[in-house]
Design brief:
By secondary structure, the chain is mostly helical. About 75% of the residues lie in helices and about 0% in strands.
Length: about 140
């Protein structure tokens, strides 16, 4: 009785620990991909641009803090948000806007296999544009 039970647990453990195999797609050849591949590639595009934005973020915050230090009296005397606070608030609002906008745009294919791809592609596009906006806004040569 113990042996069959042990084999059952061993078999279950092997199934649980076996790596899941996901189909890989060559995103450089999108014309040849099925819809599932296009969706995966759109998700990867968003992940890359989101990682770019996340890598840029500490530099933006540091620049905002530098500007705040240069104008500390101004912010204190007028009781207005600092560059850093304004940046953080704007970014939180932008993320919410991006997510809702892309959700809406994905409704072009509501319920269809293209819907996730449209949402991810929208988020990648909007995030790339946000990187450009923030880079320009906090470009030291422009100030």
């Amino acid at each position: 009785m113990i042996r069959p039970l042990a084999l059952t647990f061993l078999g279950a453990a092997l199934l649980v620990s076996a790596p899941a195999t996901a189909q890989e797609f060559d995103c450089s050849r999108r014309d040849d991909l099925p819809q599932s591949g296009l969706t995966v590639c759109a998700g990867e595009d968003f992940d890359k641009t989101d990682a770019e934005l996340n890598a840029l973020w500490p530099k933006l915050v540091a620049e905002a803090k530098r500007r705040d230090a240069d104008m500390a009296d101004f912010f204190r005397d007028r009781n207005v948000p600092t560059n850093e606070k304004a940046l953080r608030a704007a970014q939180r609002a932008w993320i919410e806007f991006r997510d809702r906008q892309c959700e809406l745009e994905s409704y072009e294919a509501l319920g269809g296999s293209m819907q996730p791809m449209l949402g991810a592609a929208c988020k990648a596009d909007m995030t790339q544009k946000r990187i450009a906006e923030l880079s320009t806004l906090f470009d030291e040569s422009g100030r």
